[in-house]
Amino acid sequence: MNANPTSGGMPMRMRREKQAAPKHAAPKAHRLDTRALIGIILLLVVGLIALFSASYPAAISKFNDGTWFIRRQGLYVLVGFVAMLVISGIDYHVYLRFQKPLFIFCIALLILVPLVGVDHNGAKRWIELPVLGEFQPSELMKDAVIISFSYYAVRYGDRIRQIRGDLPFFGALALIAGLLYLEPHLSATIIIFGIGLAILIVSSMKIWYFIPIGIVVGAAGTWYIATQGYASARIEAWLNPFATEELFKHDGWQGGNSQIAIGSGGFWGLGLGQGRQKHLYLPEPQNDFIFSAWCEEMGFIGALLVLVLFAFLIYRCYYIAFHAPDKMGCLIATGIATKLAIQTLVNLWVVTGLFPVTGASLPFFSYGGTALLMQMGEMGIILNISRYMRPSEKRRG
Questions:
Q1: Which residues, other chains included, contact 2 with Cβ-Cβ below 8 Å and sequence gap of 6+?
Q2: What is the pLDDT of residue 191?
Q3: Which residue of 33, 116, 159, 388 lies most exposed, with the fewest beta carbons within 10 A?
Q4: Radius of gyration over alpha carbons of the chain, in Å?
């Protein structure tokens, strides 16, 4: 007897075709989000201009070479931009394979920092690496939190809506905060907590959980200020850096000179390259206080330009997050967007006197190879996620 070609109710050819089809077809990739790319390029260009103008007095004083900072930063920008374009072509799901070893590796680095770290101004936040120079493990920890929290938030699913499902995430944040306390590094702690909470909120964590979280964080902050002498001094200087001449010369020096620089700029500014506070009055004009030097030279108009550029890029990052093809892409993009938003806001609040002085650099502007390369890598991931948005959504955006 001949075999029935429709055995089992399905023709043999159709069965073979069904077996050959993939279970989960990958979404079709499109062109990356050009608006986000333009925003990144504009911030890099304006950042390099601001850095060159702000850094040359310090470069001459320290290295007898006015281009010392800008030459190195230009190289970092070039390498970072190429890396961003390469990463934008790599499927973002690849990073999930390494989320656990990356997180463990970052925890190990944070443990090493107080033991073998490099001390700058009383804080150990850097590790000296051969050839590469100084490296800040907290920068890598931020990305490890983004990837790991996104992975487990998707894996836990609806358990995120229960306090028991959130406890592992809070435990991880507490561990990181404890290790950063040893450096100490308050700004990194704030940014990492913000990233973690943003991912949990988008994953459907109940909002009322912020009540006990706020109580715990408030108690921890009060204890931190009470036990760290420098913290209480910074609070006093933040409230009024000009209270006394002695206070201004010591703890109020950074915040006070930053406010003087911003106020001196007025509406139109003194002109590019004409700033006065950067001549060894304003501390770290090439790093944490680069926005102050920019405001003095470019005034309110220049400051507004920078704010608009940051607001536009942050908006595009969140837009990409909420139009991602899956929950994993949404959470990763949300974490990156939140990191960019919080780090930008903390730096701007510090230099304008709305927040106590803490070591938070301004993304794309402040001098530093490690931070810039990490930021460019994150933008590469954002651009890769944007490739999988549906074409109709990209047109509407």
A1: none
A2: 94
A3: 116
A4: 24
3-state secondary structure the chain: CCCCCCHHHCCHHHHHHHHHCCCCCCCCCCCCCHHHHHHHHHHHHHHHHHHHHHHHHHHHHHHCCCCHHHHHHHHHHHHHHHHHHHHCCCCHHHHHHHHHHHHHHHHHHHHHHHHHCEEECCEEEEEEECCCEEECHHHHHHHHHHHHHHHHHHHHHHHHHCHHHHHHHHHHHHHHHHHHHCCCCHHHHHHHHHHHHHHHHHCCCCHHHHHHHHHHHHHHHHHHHHHCHHHHHHHHHHHCCCCCHHHHHCCCHHHHHHHHHHHHHCCCCCCCCCCCCCCCCCCCCCCCCHHHHHHHHHHHHHHHHHHHHHHHHHHHHHHHHHCCCCHHHHHHHHHHHHHHHHHHHHHHHHHHCCCCCCCCCCCCCCCCHHHHHHHHHHHHHHHHHHCCCCHHHHHHC
pLDDT of residue 238: 75
pLDDT at res. 110: 94
* Dist CA 350 CA 254 (whole Å): 10
pLDDT of 186 reads: 84
Q: What are the structure tokens assigned to 133, written together?
A: 């120079």
CA 322 to chain centre: 19
* Distance (Å, whole) CA 281 – CA 304: 24
- CA nearest to 336, candidates 358, 360, 314: 314
Q: What count of residues does the chain have?
A: 397
Closest CA to 335 of 104, 154, 130, 134: 154
